[in-house]
Amino acid sequence: MHKLTARQEEIRQFIRQFIIDSGFPPTRADITRALGFRSPNAAESHLRALEKKGAISLQAGSSRGIRLLNDTGGEAESGLPVIGQVAAGSPVFAQEHVRERCQVNPGIFRPRADYLLSVQGMSMRDAGILEGDLLAVHRTADVRNGQIVVARLQDDVTVKRFQRDGYQVRLLPENPDYTPITVDLRTEPLVIEGLGVGLIRNGEAL
Amino acid sequence: MHKLTARQEEIRQFIRQFIIDSGFPPTRADITRALGFRSPNAAESHLRALEKKGAISLQAGSSRGIRLLNDTGGEAESGLPVIGQVAAGSPVFAQEHVRERCQVNPGIFRPRADYLLSVQGMSMRDAGILEGDLLAVHRTADVRNGQIVVARLQDDVTVKRFQRDGYQVRLLPENPDYTPITVDLRTEPLVIEGLGVGLIRNGEAL
DNA sequence: TCTGTTGCTGGTAATATATACAGCCTCCGG
DNA sequence: CCGGAGGCTGTATATATTACCAGCAACAGA
Description:
- Chain A is an alpha+beta fold.
- Chain A has three helices and eleven strands, in the order H-H-H-E-E-E-E-E-E-E-E-E-E-E.
- In chain A, helix 2 crosses helix 3 (about 40-50).
- The first copy, chain A, binds a DNA duplex through helix 3.
């Protein structure tokens, strides 16, 4: 996100406060009144600038179609993002993968969780991680042997137990039906996306 | 707040989800489309009904002027109580058993969770419920075969899969090392304390 | 039987709102 | 000295949206 000017930050703050007070975003006219403009176009161009800098997103054609981005303060942004199917080649923690948000305090996990990953497959069954579970993930590449990690191999994102020995990394499933994956760091790219720090399961999976 | 009808609750839920998804409330037209109405007035009158019952408040004259009230999201609540060792003879859900509180929105589970029970033992291992896990429990005695329940037998509280056949109730572990418990309701007291609706695991158990 | 509520169809007028076009001024890097 | 971004005024206009009209049917309680 680009840095905002003082005036732009002022407008962003107004939008934020307006949402908290009213429950919905302001119109151009609301911004115009609040900031003392004489033309609604002043608000319009500010919104465009804010969108260009990635501070907000605008919904074309719909009234009050303003959404604050990268903001932890707004009520609408509370909770952890739930990430589902991860498309090949794109980072796990990307806006387009966020299916919904789960009202959980990230601080109940240690280290704190950054997002929830919807688990696919039964490869970690014997570690009590089942398909459909939400794995709480802390974004870090600093993992140790025996920890459960989220790893990216080629374009595949997987949850496994981590074991490293020199240039050899073994990604161990917790299910005899699956086979461990061995990666040679000198020849194959391996990205550690994060560390598993907890689990949440919905009732439907019980 | 008056009780909502099924249809009204449906609409309230839609508004709620719309706000989460979009960042702003829906218009009458949005509701009309989503619910499959042919007239926007259907949405209008539903909103009026919801306002009358105190479920929402409407801002006259402004677009998307819908605000959810009494949102049970529990922003003031300090999370779910975590219940640990249960002393013999006393009810599970008693103040003295609350070890701590966990910052989780009870509404992420369905039906909603009333408390979290710290799981002891590995009798439900193959259902992905491990020792130390926090089982989200909905307080009810209305359980069905195959569901995971919190049951009290004598002075013992246990988590098992429920199976009833007439007067015979079987409490099935999900681990071949444990043996099922059979209870004859005519001779032995069995109290169903609640229904397992979810699970939370701390990182330390991973 | 009357009255009110729920749950809609179908339509319309008023107005709230987004958004485009045409400018004006200042500051700043190249 | 040019070009672009920031920060506005002022005027329109298409359309998104609210809000109200008149009905219809089912149902519940008084």
